[in-house]
């Protein structure tokens, strides 16, 4: 896998920052009736949900684009159990991290 | 008397804001560490937390870069994850009624947490709504950046993040952000479909794109109903 160059990272940061600030400022400038259409609201409410779900799956179960089941999935499942038991997110992260590390180092 | 009462209300909103801002700051440590292990340097990591300042987008950028994805995929992922900040801005605009430089600062700290705490106040009490927004937004900004540096500095001393469980803790942090949003069965199914679609596309598309492609699920599911 090719390394992303330093300039490419700075370019990414610069453009991402401009796009982010533009979206935030437009929110304060746009007339509300344009974006308060029910369908637009429904879709934009779902976007963070599907994106986060996809990110979790890709981060946990792929390595260099191949599907891999390893210590990360064990950690995530342990974190999910902590979430199910309504633990604080600090607990969730510690449980997930500790389980992942345990599987990685000892199994 | 009026001043005393005002201070008491401020203290109450302040406590609510810090109860959110301080724990959220811990995520900053996870981000700092994730960013360093993805190959970004300390300055780039600090730049993301201070001038991009949107957790999910920051994680997405370092996630895409760490998996060897391109500039465009990283920017797109960041933008798509940041769209909701624009919608929060739309919601907050009539409540804050700011202008000029103060509006620019308000725009920059328009995030999930600031909006959530502001809207959790009694909405007829406009002053409390505004205080909730500013206290939380500025509080998260300070703690998020502080912990980013701590996380980044501790990560540089780790030669293998997996050994410390970091590569398991980061997706778990994402799951903790997603979890409270999955309020009914339909949303849980939508999230599961997105996971399966992203995994299925991973071997086929360049890194980063499988994540963005799942927006089509939001489009289809949100079109009707």
Structural class of chain A: mainly alpha
- The Cα radius of gyration of chain B reads 19 Å
Cα radius of gyration of chain A in angstroms: 19 Å
Distance from first to last alpha carbon of chain A:
27 Å
Q: Could you give the count of β-strands of chain B? A: 0
Q: Strand portion of chain A, in percent?
A: under 5%
Order the strands across the largest sheet of chain A as they lie in space. Answer: 1-2
Largest sheet of chain A: 2 strands, antiparallel
User: What would you call the shape of chain B?
Assistant: globular
Oligomer: heterodimer
What is the chain-wise order of helices and strands of chain A?
HHHEEHH
Count of separate DSSP helical elements of chain B: 11
Commentary on this structure:
The complex is a heterodimer of chains A (about 110) and B (about 220). Chain A is built from 5 helices and 2 strands. With about 110 residues, chain A is mainly alpha-helical. Chain A is extended and about 55 Å long. Chain A starts with 5 loop residues before the first helix and ends with a helix. Chain B has about 220 residues and is mainly alpha-helical. Chain B folds into 2 domains: about 1-180, no CATH class; about 180-225. Chain B has 11 helices and no strands. In chain B, helix 1 (about 1-35) crosses helix 8 (about 165-180). In chain B, about 55% of the residues are buried. Classes of the chains: A mainly alpha (about 110), B mainly alpha (about 220). At the A-B interface, helix 1, helix 3, strand 2, helix 4 and helix 5 of A face helix 1, helix 2, helix 3, helix 4 and helix 5 of B.
């Amino acid at each position: 896998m090719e390394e992303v160059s330093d300039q490419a990272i700075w370019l990414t940061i610069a453009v991402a920052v401009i796009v982010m600030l533009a979206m935030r400022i437009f929110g304060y400038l746009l007339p509300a009736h344009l974006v308060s259409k029910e369908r637009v609201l429904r879709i934009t409410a779902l976007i963070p949900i599907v994106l986060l779900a996809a990110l979790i799956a890709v981060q946990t179960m792929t390595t260099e684009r191949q599907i891999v089941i390893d210590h990360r999935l064990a950690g995530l499942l342990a974190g999910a159990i902590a979430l199910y038991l309504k633990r604080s997110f600090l607990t969730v992260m510690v449980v997930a991290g500790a389980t992942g590390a345990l599987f990685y180092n000892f199994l | 008397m009026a001043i005393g009462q005002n201070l008491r209300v401020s203290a109450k909103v302040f406590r609510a804001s810090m109860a959110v801002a301080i724990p959220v700051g811990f995520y900053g440590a996870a981000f700092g560490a994730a960013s360093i292990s993805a190959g970004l340097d300390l300055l780039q990591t600090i730049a993301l937390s201070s001038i991009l300042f949107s957790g999910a987008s920051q994680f997405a950028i370092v996630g895409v870069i760490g998996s060897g994805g391109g500039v465009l995929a990283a920017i797109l992922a960041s933008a798509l994850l940041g769209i909701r900040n624009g919608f929060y801005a739309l919601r907050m605009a009539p409540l804050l009624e700011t202008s000029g430089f103060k509006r620019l600062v308000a725009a920059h700290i328009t995030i999930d947490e600031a909006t959530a705490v502001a809207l959790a106040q009694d909405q007829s009490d406009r002053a409390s709504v505004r205080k909730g927004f500013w206290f939380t937004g500025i509080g998260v900004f300070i703690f998020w950046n502080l912990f980013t540096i701590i996380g980044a500095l501790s990560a540089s001393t780790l030669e293998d993040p997996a050994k410390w469980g970091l590569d398991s803790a980061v997706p778990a942090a994402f799951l903790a952000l997603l979890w409270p949003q999955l309020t009914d069965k339909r949303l849980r199914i939508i999230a599961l479909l997105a996971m399966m679609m992203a995994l299925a596309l991973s071997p086929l598309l360049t890194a980063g794109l499988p994540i963005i492609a799942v927006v089509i699920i939001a489009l289809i599911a949100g079109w009707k109903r």
